[in-house]
Structures are given as structure tokens and as C-alpha cells.
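Data availability (excerpt). The following record was deposited with the supplementary files.
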Amino acid sequence: MASSAKKLQSKLFSSQSSNAIPGGGPSIDPGLTINIPKPPSKLPIAEQTLPKGKTATPPPPAAVAEPTTAEEDARTYRQKLVERLGADYEGVERHRLLQDSKKDRHWKRWGPYLSERQWATVREDYSGNGDAWAHFPHAHARSRAYRWGEDGLAGISDNHQRLCFALALWNGVDPILKERLFGVTGHEGNHGEDCKELYWYLDSTPTHSYMKYLYKYPQRRFPYEELVTENNQRSRDVTEFEIMDTNSFDEDRYWDVFVEYAKDEDDPNAISIRITAYNRGPDPATLHILPTLWFPNTWSWPLPTPPRPTLEQTSEGVITATHETLGTTNLYCTPSPPPFGPSNEEIEADGEDDSVIPELLFTENDTNFERLYGGQNTTPYVKDAFHDHIIPSHRPHLPGVTIETKVPNKKVVKGVNGVNGHANGDTSREVTIEVEEDGQITPTGPAHTRYFVNPERKGTKSAAHYTFNNVPGNGGVVVVRLKLTPSTPEADPCINDEELFDNVVDERRSEADEFYGRLIAGQVTEDLKAITRQALGGMLWTKQYYKFIQTEWLNGDPAQPPPPPERRWVRNREWKHLHIADILSMPDKWEYPFFAAWDTAFHCIPLAMVDPAFAKKQLDLLTREWYMKPDGQIPAYEWNFSDVNPPVHAWATFRIFKIERKVYGNEDLEFLERVFQKLLLNFTWWVNRKDSDGNNVFEGGFLGLDNIGAFNRSEPLPTGGTLRQADGTAWMAFFCLNMLNMALELAKHNPVYEDIASKFFEHFIFIADAMTFKGDHDNELSLWNEQDGMYFDAIQWGPGHSQQLPIRSLVGLIPLYATLTLEPSVINRFPGFKKRMEWFIDNRPEISQRNLANMRASGKGQRRLLALARPIWLAVNFLLIESLQRFHQYYGNELQVECPTGSGDYMDLGKVAEEIQHRIIHIFGRDMDGRRATNGGNPKLDRDPYFRDYVWFHEFFHGNDGRGLGASHQTGWSGLVAFHIMQSGISCRLPRTPRTPRSTSLHYFDEHIDTASEFGDDPLKSAYSVYSASDLNTLGDVSPDAL
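Predicted structure:
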């Protein structure tokens, strides 16, 4: 057995895969050198014995794979594909993406579409006061059926969330199973809601052909109460109390639980699932692993009641799921090998067959009304049945039993199995009860295994209960292998062959190595490659199925009591057209398990690097008629769809269009024009609703970034009057310039868009002028303060009565984003646009001459510049970097500024932009002492070999020391660091030692993609054929206009 384990150890999760790409660089998956032991051989599933009285029912037959020769079987799928495609080979994952786009294979049907938190969301809130945190707390989540979505630990579902799979765990001491992540609510946290768990999204390909997740599970009782109490007692001016501040991870008494998913090489519906748990503590410990398969509750809401889908045991270790539209899916829960020691030594057992056989459990995904409300359940088997079945202290007290709690030892009494057991009320059946030392009831004897779960082994929620006793400390390991597939063991031999099973997982991981090796090739440090891969993997993991149908949500469901009438007036009543049921990119699937329009725009930049089709779909959806209001407003987020976010949709749309054109050679004009037309409606909404006086100065509203102004800008001013927002107006100028950009691009193919480009050019000039210069009758209406050299908000009480708010904040920097350099070739290419621009300059001299950029003055290369003249948020810094790069295009190397301030060092704006990129990268990267700034000086995160390679992508970062703040898995816009590494990672050194950008700015409307390849026709590397030699390691030119 030990030799078998060592045989697999040499190839599984090693630093170099056996199928590594020649010349593609080493594996860049950090900290994944985990050794998967080979389990003992065992009987095929079909030969195992069912419980007495149960007849085996084989799953429905599936198509048997065509026979192949032994030589073909020995080759990997990648090798076969290389031979078949030759010079057209661009990697296995690129091939799958192409198949998915052509609808040859539905590779994205299954993915990580479960939320990390469905409880306490607006969708599940049916209260009269809109307090979602209180209406559906964490304490209800295990017992109460969800209406609008599902959550789970390391979970997956199909793209319509008809069937869900996730992991549950129990350490033997927790009061509940660990089925979902825990955190404090908005009321409980001293800084609002916050997840209090340790987990990482380690890897994912765009098609989710391979995914990896890590959860660190304490062996001590999970400190639910301590986390809530301590955070609730802390004031806002002190740090949050985290789980690592408790004793939960002292002495390393925790489990590292890795969950991997690997789809079959040519079948997107067949998924191998491997769960590997390591005991990092010093002593042996017991772990319960419960892979859980269930159907969302779709039957409790409508009338008449629809039929339920079914889960049932059809053979030993086989759960078969049958759904009207999804069809038949089988979960094969094979026996697991016994625990292995730290060096993969098999632990001796008493019996001949020491395999761990799972107990299959079944119940219904229905609310436990009895536990929550003291009511009567509609079924004897309810959502939290597995908690009751496994955890004695979780079980309800049986009626008619008197318990003596003050006993030193266990004591046996007799009781009646009544209302909490069999629904038929058979009082003749007695069960034996053991009273634990804490007075809790433990049903035992013949009846207890059927007490809470369905003895007929069918339902709508199921689990395979694996119990691993006395797993050795200091690295002892257990492995669970499962297969989710419509196929049969006859058609899929890896179901019963563990080595074939592991080969499937290993090959998918090798293909993920190939995909990221091609994307992040070149002289970038291994640490930065690993950060990029985790950032992009996290972006792909934070997809979620999001469903919200406003009319059903607001009116309530026919089969349920009507919601309180006052609920209609709490939120979102004017969004009657919303009908959402899509896979969306989430900011953070625990802290923000809902889409946010402006977050989505930033998510799509790094997503476009790996899957431009998905990125484009996100932006397209938000402008479709079932999202966008008829008046053109884009929904913000579910807490208030009417809130106002910065209008960055146009910027993201054009940015993604250019990324796909440069990196993948696809110019999707249909996408650009379709979204542009919808954004014309959105621009009109902004002008009509947010510039109420028609003077080109905008009120805006909340505008993201957690209300960075002095007042709550979502509410009326306490002083009266109207707030004229510097950032709101700057965002509109930014919107104008991006619409101008898009119009000029479209004008290359349709001259009608020249006129539209002229419209946005002039509108931008009017906004810039109104924002920067004083009106004729109001000495204070200007938002520009000449003395301070800064933009400020202003309050206006009426004509001639306004006052600036001289507060130095991010508000004053946002006007820098509204920047565009017009290349001479662009101006000359469009004679209509050029004529109109020159007319405006000649006939509106009072505006054009005093514009900060001075339209009459040309910059380097006769360029024209359109422009307005901190915690660390990657989103806003990304835009600042782009603006500095555009200013550098205009001014060239002649304009030098001191950077850093007070250093005496001067550099051009291009170098300043690169310096900021390097500083952002160094928030995540290791310094010379092995520390990461984002870890906040935590020695365990920086030094521990089981922590130091894993990176969190926080919502924002402390301005002084870079430590992570806010949501810990905000791989949405913080995933932008991957883009920075791709652009300037090759020149990234220590902070304050920036290197000159390796290329000058290319021209904005570059229509050519370099085709020369230093690799010639090598089919393993021909994916590089769309890159120039200088682009092999990055996205190429650092300027935003080059993309």
C-alpha cells in the first residue's frame, strides 16, 4: 500500500506535472504540493451488497464510449488534440472555450455557481422593515428552505441551479455541521458584515474543467458566540476581531480541506470530485466528511404545488438524481481508503477490509417549522435532518421523557418515538435514550438510524457520510473520491478505478497549468505568477447563479402567507420589469453575494484576459431590457437598485473590446454597437435625472466607494440646498469621453457615428467648462479651487448662493480620470468630426481656450488632449494609472514630476504610472523578508508553510501599510492586480525603483495584431502566434489606448 501511495505521490500536485508543456515554464500553482495516497483496491460498486430488503436498481444506461486502441488510451487528451489540430493547437482549455462558444459542448453548464451566503440577503427578506440581517439570520440557514438561491461550502451547481453539490464537515465537537461559511452581520460587526472563516479560491480554468478550493476547519469548537460577542462590543475605531484572534488555530489544531473538481476530457457533464483533508494538528483527530447533493426547493411557493424532483439510492453507494429538465445524474460515492500517516504510511486496522464505507442519508429540503417556530412540519424529514442524525446535542428533546441532567455518567431511560420521529404517531415503538453528561438526549438502538433521515433512502436532499477516526497528526491525510455523471461504471471505468480517477484529475490540472503557463509566460517571478493565477482563479470562482423576479418577490408567493403590506414601500418597488436568472460575476460571494453594476465593470477587465466571451456577456446583460429600466437607468445592487453608481459601463465595454482585439484577434463590433446603443439611453437618463438645472454640473448620488464625501449623498442634505458633486460631474465627463471613443471606433465602419462622436466631444467640453470655471453670476459655483489646486464639492442654495466644501479627498482626484488623447491619424481619418471640432475651437474660443487641456495646443506628435485638469481601492487606482498614461502620451518625457514627493527624484508621467502599478503589485507580493503587505504583519500568514503561499484579495487596503481591509475575497476589482502584473510585472522590482516602460505608446486605433512568433509552427506553442516577441510575458504596450 505504501508503494502505491508513493507511486501516485510522484505525479500528483508536484511542482512539475508529467504532462508539462515544453518551454511553458514550471507549474505556478502555489502551495499545492499535497500528496494523495492511493486507496486499497475494493469490489466494484455493482458487486457490493445492499442493505437487507433493498434491491439494486441500475442507473439509466448512457452512451458507451467508442473502443480505442491501447496506444490511444496511453496518450493524454492533450497529446491527442495536438496531433489532431497540429499548428492550430492553442491549448486544451482554449479548445474547450472555442467548443463552448460554438455550442458544440456546454462546458460552462456546471460551475461554482453556488453562493457562499444566501441567508440575510435582500432576496430572502420578507420582513416589513427591510432588515434582511434579522429576518433570515445564520441560525435559520440550516433549518429554513431558501426561496431565491442556494449556498454551500466549495459548492457547484448547473447554470440554472436545478441541482447543487457542496461539502459539509463535522469535527466531533461543533454544535452544528459546517455546511456554510459563518460571519457577523451588519448589526454584529464593528465595521459591518464580515466573514470569519479561512478559505481560498486556489484555481479555476474559464470552463471550470479544473477547480480547486481550500478551507481550513478548526478541530476545536468553532467560536460562533465569541466572534459575535467580541465584534459587537468593539467600537468602530478599533480593528475587527477575526477567527485567528481566537484560539481556534493554536497548536495548528485544524484541518486543511482541499476540494477539487475535474470534468472529463470531452464530457462537460461528468465531474470527478476529490476531497483531501490533512490533520495539521499534533494529535490524532476524527473528521466527518459529508458530500451533499440536493435540489433547491421549488415546490413550496407556487400553487398548484408542482411535482418534486427526486434523489434516491439506486445501488450501493449510488445516489441518482432525476429532474424534469436536467435529466438523470448519478453521484457515485465510493468507499475511501483508511487514513494515511504523515509519510503516507497506511494506518493498520483490525479487519481485512479497512475501507471507509459511506452511509447514504436522505431527507427533504423543507423548512423545519417545528424547530424554528414551534409549528408543524409538512414532512417528517426536513432540511436540518443531517445535523440531528449525526450530532446528539443538536437533537430536539423527545416528548414524554423526563431527563435527569445532574448525573456524572450516562444513564439509560425509555421514551416514546412520537412527533419528532414517525409521522404516523405509532406510540408502541420504544427507543432507548442515553443521557449525556451535559443532559443532551442521544437516541440509540435499532430506531435511531431512521429517526431523522428517511429510511426509504429517497428525498430532495442527500449526503454520503464518511467518518474517519483517529487520523494521525502532523499531516495525516484522508481522501474521498466521488463522480457526478449521467454515465454508468460500464461506460466510465474511472468510477471504480482510483488510479484512473486520479489520472483524470491530474490531467485536468496539467491542462490548467498549460493555460496559465501560456498566459503568464516570460520573466515574471514565480510569486507574481502565482498571485496572478490565484487572482484570476478567484475571479472565476466568484461566479454565482443570481435569481430575482421583482413581481414575485414583492407580491409574495401563492402558497405562502402574504408579506406585510408595508414591505411594498421598503425598497425596489419601481423595478417591476426585473427578471433576472443568470450566472453573474459577484464582488464577494459571502460579503456581497449580489451583483453591483460598477463592480462588474472592473471585474470584466481581468476576466477578459481569460474569457472575453463571459466578460462581454456581463456588460451586455446589464443593458438588456430585463435589467435596465425603460428610462435608461442601470440597476445598482439589490439593497437599492435605484442607487447611483459611477457610469463606468462605457469605459469597461470599450476596454474589453480592445483587449479581445489585441490579445485574441477578435474584433467584436456587434457587441460594441449593441451595448453602445443601450448606453445612449443610460447617458440620457444621467443628463435628465442628475443635471436637474441643465448647467452640466451633476448631483450624482452615492457613487460607490462607501460615500467618500462629507455627507451621506444618498440622502437630502441636512443643510438644505443641492450638492454639486465634483466626482459626479467628473464621472459624467469620463462617460462622455468613453462614448466619444466608442463612436469613433464605430465610425470606422459606419460614418453615421461621426456625428455622434461630435456630440460627445462638445458635451464633454461643456461639462469641463462648467466644472472648472465660474459662472457669470456666481463666484462660488465653480468646483475648481485655484488656490488649493483641487476640485471640491459645493452646496448650492439657489442662483448666486453656493459654497465650496474644501475637503481634500478622493473626490478631488476623480476628475483626472476624464482624460483622452486624440491621435492625429484619428482626427484626420474622420473629416466630418475634424471639421466640427475645428469649428467649435474657432467659434467658441471662450470655452476652448480656457479649457484646462487647451484644445488649440497640440502635444507630443500633434496629439490633442481632452482632460479636466486615500484608503487604497484598486478600482480607482486602475483608472488613475490609465489617466497618467494618457497624459504621458500627450506630454511625452518633457513633463517631469517629483515622485515620491520629497524624494528629489523626477520622472515622466509614464514612469509615475508604472510606479503606482508596482506599488499595487507589492501589496500582494513578497518583500525581501518574505512578508506580504496585505497580510498586515501576521506571522502565521507570512511564515507558516501551510499559509504563506495563499493570498487574499481584499476589498481595499490600508493607505499606510497596505494591509487588507473590508471583504476578504473581493477578487472582483482587486483581481485587477492580475492585469497590472501582466502589463508591468516583468519590470516590477522593489518599490521606488521603477523601470522605464519597455515600449512607447502605440497609436490608439491600431488595427494590426503582431503575427510573428519566435516559436515558429511548434503546435505546443502556436497560441503565441498572436503575440509579438515583446508581448509573450505581458499584455504588451502599457498605454490604455494600445489595448
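Summary of structural features: The first strand starts at residue 110 and ends at 111.
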